[in-house]
Amino acid sequence: MRILTDRAIPGLERRHRRCDPVRVAHHPGTPLERQPPAAINLAYRGAVVALDVADLLPTLIGDHSHHRCAWVEGEGNGHDMGGTVAAQGGERAEMPVGQETDVGVGEIAWCARHGPRGYRLMAGGPDRDEVEAWYRDFQERFCAFLAEVDPRTELHRDVWQRPGGGGGDTRILIGPIIEKAAVNLSAVWGDTPSSLRARVDADSFFATGVSIIVHPKNPFAPTFHANVRYFEAGPGGWFGGGTDLTPWYLNESDAEHFHRTIRDVCGRHPIADYGAWKQACDEYFFLPHRGEARGIGGIFFDHLDREPSDVWAFQRDLADALEPAYRPILERRISTEYGPDQERWHHHRRGRYVEFNLAWDRGTRFGLETGGRADSILASLPPYVRWEPLAEPPAGSPEAELLALLRGRARDWT
C-alpha cells in the first residue's frame, strides 16, 4: 500500500467543497479506479471526513458500500502523509510515506497523524461535522424553548475562539422568570495540554458538546442541568453526557416525572442502562465535604465507545427528551408564591451548587485545563448566592425534608 501524489477523484469536490484533492493509499500497479477500500486521506483543512468507499471509488470490485473510512489531514497543506495504518482485523503498523504494506480487498485502513483537529473518529460512527452540526441545532432549539417560557428573557451571546484550536458559542439568557440560563456549545481541538497528559494518553484531542444550566428565579422551580458531548484522544473516541435536577423545595411528583421521562428514553435503546447510569449520577453529583447530594440526580454516562451509531442515536433521543422532562415542572412552579425566607434558603442552597461546580466537577476542570474561555466555563454558576451561618431548619419543615433527602440514601423515583 502506498501514499500517492495528489489525485482528485471526480465528484469529491462537489460533495465536500472544502476538500483539497485526496491522496489514495493502494496496491502498487493497480489502476486507481479498481483499488480495494484502502486508506483514503482527505485534506479537509482541519476536519475529519468519513465517507463510504463506494462514494469515492464507484467501480470497486464487489460491494464495499457498507465500509466507512475516517481520515485526518496532516497539516492542511497537501503534503504526503505517513502515520498509523490499521486493518479491519485490528492490526496496526507505522507507515512512513511511500512504504508498502499488505491491505487486502474488503479491509478498512486509516491514516492517522497529529493534525490540526487531532485524530480519526470511531469507525462506523458519525463524523465530527455531523455531531457538531446537530449539537448546534439542539442549542438553538433549547434556547427557543426557554424564550417561550420567559418571553422577556434577554439573550447575551458570545462567539469565541480558542488560541490552540476551535472555539464555542456561549449563550446566556437572563429574564424575570429564568433568572439565568447558559446554553453553551464548544468544539475545541489541538495539542493535549500537559495538565491532561496523566488522564489522556495522546498528543492531540478533539472535544465538542452542549452544556445547559437553568437557574429559575422562583425557589420552588428546580435548577436543571444537562450536557451531551463527544471526545477524541489518540485513535479512539467516545460519547458522554447526562442530566440531573436540583430542587430547593421537594415536590415528589416533579422528581417522578423527570426520572420516568429519562428512564423511558433509556428503555428505547439497548445501549442505554438507566439503573447503572442513575447510580453513576447519584455518586458523581455528591459533595463529600458536606455529606450531601447536589440534588435528586438523573443519569450520567461517559466513555461510551461501543456501537457508536447506536450511542449517537440514543444521545440525540435523550437530548430531544430534555424539554419534555423539564418544561412541565418549570411551568408548574414558576408562579408559586414565595417570600424573603424562601428566597434566602434558595440562595443559601445555591452555595452548595457552586461548591460542587468549582471543587468537584470534572467538566469545569477539563474546560479550564484545556484553555477554554473561563467566562463560558463558569457561566453555569447562579447569579445570586449566599454563604452565611444558617441554623438547621426546624424538624418537619419543607427545608428539613429536603435536607433529609439529600443526606440520606438515594431514592428510586420510578
Unreliable runs: 1-122
**If you average the pLDDT, what whole number results?**
75
Shape field = globular
Strand fraction: 15-25%
Give me the count of strands. Answer: 17
Helix content: 25-40%
Q: What's the SSE pattern?
A: EHEEEHEEEEHEEEEEEHHEEEHHHHH
Structural class: alpha+beta
* Sheet having the most strands: 7 strands, antiparallel
Total count of helical runs of at least 4 residues: 10
Strand arrangement, major sheet: 9-10-11-12-13-14-17
Rounded to the nearest angstrom, the radius of gyration is 24 Å
For the record, give the distance between the C-alpha atoms at the N and C termini, rounded to a whole number.
56 Å
Explain how this protein is built.
The chain is an alpha+beta fold and 414 residues long. The chain has ten helices and 17 strands. The strands form five sheets. A seven-stranded antiparallel sheet has the order 9-10-11-12-13-14-17. Strands 1-2-3 form a three-stranded antiparallel sheet, with no helix packed on it. A three-stranded antiparallel sheet has the order 7-6-8, with no helix packed on it. α3 runs parallel beside α6 and α4 runs antiparallel to α6. It is globular, with a radius of gyration of 24 Å. The N and C termini lie far apart (56 Å).
